[in-house]
Design brief:
By secondary structure, the chain is of the alpha+beta class. About 30% of the residues lie in helices and about 25% in strands. The chain contains three helices and six strands. The chain has helices spanning about 50-65, 75-80, 90-100; strands at about 20, 25-30, 35-40, 70, 85, 105. The strands form two sheets. The chain has a three-stranded antiparallel beta sheet with strand order 1-2-3, with helices on one face. β2 (about 25-30) and β3 (about 35-40) form a beta hairpin. The radius of gyration is 14 Å and the shape is globular.
Length: about 110
């Protein structure tokens, strides 16, 4: 898997900090640690490619001391919780979740 984390020193807030690409899917992470556009091609789902992709993102974030956040459908919460994400119940996160109709999950870096 190709990881571009930490390769951009003067990244602008409207640009991605990292793009992760594999033959099976991709994901993007903003400079603030927001993970989005996580996608695994349908024909490659259910065999661990998504877990491998997220494990690489989590590993890089831990190495950089970067907290991660993402919005996910409720049917994916258990999957993300296994990687250390938890639902953010702060008022700001609840407001965002109501707007997007998807709760915000957060993960603090581990060393």
């Amino acid at each position: 898997m190709r990881s571009l984390s930490g390769q951009f020193d003067n990244v602008r807030p409207d640009r991605f900090r990292a793009t992760y690409e594999t033959p099976h899917g991709s994901a993007r992470v903003t400079p603030t640690g927001y993970v989005h556009n996580v996608f695994i091609r349908p024909e490659h789902r259910g065999v661990g490619h998504g877990t491998a992709l997220m494990n690489q993102i989590v590993s890089d974030a831990d190495r950089l001391g970067l907290p991660l956040s993402l919005n996910a459908r409720e049917d994916l919460h258990l999957w993300y919780q296994r990687m250390g994400f938890n639902v953010d119940t702060s008022p700001a996160a609840e407001k965002l979740a109501a707007t997007l109709r998807m709760p915000l999950l957060v993960r603090q870096p581990r060393r």
